[in-house]
């Protein structure tokens, strides 16, 4: 017997066969690449929540730089015995002599007696500055003997204190009050009686020597 030859498929059968094979291959590929089903329940609970991972950043460690500062109160912490007491030098106060007609002759006499003293014209006065205390006292004595008008600006510490005494009877003599204060060891320059503008009551004003 002669072998039977395979039957040839018609064109329509071949097309159907090709379509079916393509469909099978696409199904197999889709099954292989199909994502896995999620195992999570539709109603998740708190125990199902997973915190996201946090990465730790490596922060570089830098050395702290020490800032040097100066202590402005360091001198207060030092021993008091090391601190020297600085005494302020005594400054001789200038003498202001009022200018008059023959003031030039007075300056000539002062220059012969006290050649180191300096004279300066300022606002209607002659400013006389002595270099030593002895000359200062001598110039003042000379001006007083000649009855020449002058004044000396004293320091606040050496100026007399002005005191007001209240509550005294009106008919007391100011000289009696002055003598009574002097007898108690208080140096009084002068005592004056003032009157108020409203009640005309005379309060007493005393200039007390601070020394």
Automatic annotation (TrEMBL):
Domain of life: Eukaryota
Residue numbers spanned by region Disordered: 1-51
Record's compositionally biased regions (Basic and acidic residues): 1-10
Name of the protein in question: Pre-C2HC domain-containing protein
Encoding gene per record: NCL1_34574
């Amino acid at each position: 017997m002669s072998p039977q030859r395979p039957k040839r498929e018609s064109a329509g059968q071949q097309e159907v066969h090709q379509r079916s094979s393509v469909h099978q291959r696409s199904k197999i590929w889709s099954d292989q690449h199909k994502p896995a089903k999620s195992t999570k329940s539709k109603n998740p609970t708190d125990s199902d929540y997973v915190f996201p991972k946090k990465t730790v950043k490596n922060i570089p460690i830098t050395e702290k730089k020490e800032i040097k500062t100066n202590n402005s109160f360091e001198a207060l912490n030092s021993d008091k015995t090391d601190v020297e007491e600085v005494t302020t030098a005594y400054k001789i106060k200038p003498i202001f002599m009022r200018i008059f007609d023959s003031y030039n002759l007075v300056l000539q006499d002062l220059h012969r007696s006290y050649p180191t003293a300096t004279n300066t014209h300022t606002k209607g006065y002659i400013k006389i500055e002595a270099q030593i205390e002895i000359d200062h006292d001598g110039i003042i004595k000379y001006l007083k003997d000649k009855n020449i008008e002058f004044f000396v600006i004293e320091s606040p510490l050496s100026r007399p204190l002005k005191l007001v005494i209240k509550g005294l009877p009106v008919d007391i003599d100011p000289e009696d009050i002055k003598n009574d204060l002097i007898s108690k060891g208080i140096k009084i320059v002068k005592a004056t009686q003032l009157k108020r503008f409203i009640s005309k009551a005379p309060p007493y004003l005393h200039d007390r020597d601070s020394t």
